[in-house]
Amino acid sequence: MPQYWNREKFAADKTRSVQDSSNKSIVKEARIVSLAMKDDPSNVPLENLPQGAKLLSVGSTIDELDIPTLQQQKANVIFVSPGPSKETLATLIQELESSLEWVHSRSAGVDAIYTDTLANTPATVTNAKGAFSSTLAEYTLLACSYFAKDLPRLLKNKGRKDWNKYNILELRNATLGIVGYGDIGQAAAKLAKAYGMRVVALRRNPEKTKDDPYCDVVYGNDQLNVLFGESDYILCSAPLTAETKGMIGKEQFDAAKTNAVFINVGRGPIIDEEALVEALKDGRLKGAGLDVFATEPLPKESELWELGNVLLSPHNMDATETFMLESTEFFVNENLPRFLHGELLLNEIDKAAGY
Known about the structure:
The protein is of the alpha/beta class. The chain has two domains: 7-131 and 321-340, NAD(P)-binding Rossmann-like Domain (Rossmann fold), CATH 3.40.50; 133-312, Rossmann fold, CATH 3.40.50.720. Helices cover 31% and strands 15% of the residues. It has helices at residues 7-10, 16-20, 67-72, 86-95, 116-120, 133-148, 151-160, 183-194, 224-230, 250-255, 273-282, 323-340; strands at residues 30-35, 53-59, 77-80, 102-105, 124-126, 175-179, 198-202, 217-219, 233-236, 260-264, 285-290, 310-312. The strands form two sheets. Strands 8-7-6-9-10-11-12 form a seven-stranded parallel beta sheet, sandwiched between helices. A five-stranded parallel beta sheet has the order 2-1-3-4-5, with helices on one face. Helix 6 (133-148) packs across helix 8 (183-194). The radius of gyration is 22 Å and the shape is elongated. It starts with 6 loop residues before the first helix and ends in a 15-residue tail after the last helix. The model has no long low-confidence stretch (mean pLDDT 94).
């Protein structure tokens, strides 16, 4: 059974695993290739690796890497940072096929690096799931409150010096529907429960949510429209895969509860963006909080820029000052010692499913 990392659980002591592993024997070495921009400051922890691990090379393209030497050195670990292309990673996997044991993505989503080559490699593939969930959960509740308290009206009134009282909505007793009940969805559910909200979730494997203290109802993928019909706020936190691409569109917005708010922190292509715009314009949706888009940066001609009922952010609601550094520290301080000591790696992805 795969085990997953959680930033809240492990952040208190970033060196815990290194300290705990000091008395354990090293059963294998880690010969690491860092597929990254050479000046990436978030990769500084790679300069202080535990005993048994060695950084062989850093480069963002195949031309920047000495492939024959890496093959001779039997490189067996690839650490992938945002920036290098999926084609570069695919080529590197093929070139190191005889020695490669582990590929780790510094990002939580692997859609940007996903290829048939990655899906079919016998190497273990892990990601940074759990590193960015807390801040995206905070944004989710911010977006809910933004529309419940009508913050645009407050700001307009302040600008006009207009002491104009109006009724607001409570989040208490409202329903948050979560499409994709992974680590981000679960973090959002935890905060929603603190607000007194009811939580319903959609999950490919509903049985994984058995005895979850934060989820009231869990649905299978065939009940997406049901979730839209009973949710006051709908959070999309699903990964982008062949299965989820375009899964939310006109049919779901037609089924949405009156005055529902749609929030997306997953990936833009999961949504039919044209259908979303029309639902926001004709009132089928009260509003939307969007941090991700089908095309990024969001084109200036997109109508989403102009719609008054859209809270829009430039895919930065997980971008704390240290979020990428902490993700590298997870690799160095948590998963790398596990690899060296022959223990179960955290955050192994389902290569066939793509997450």
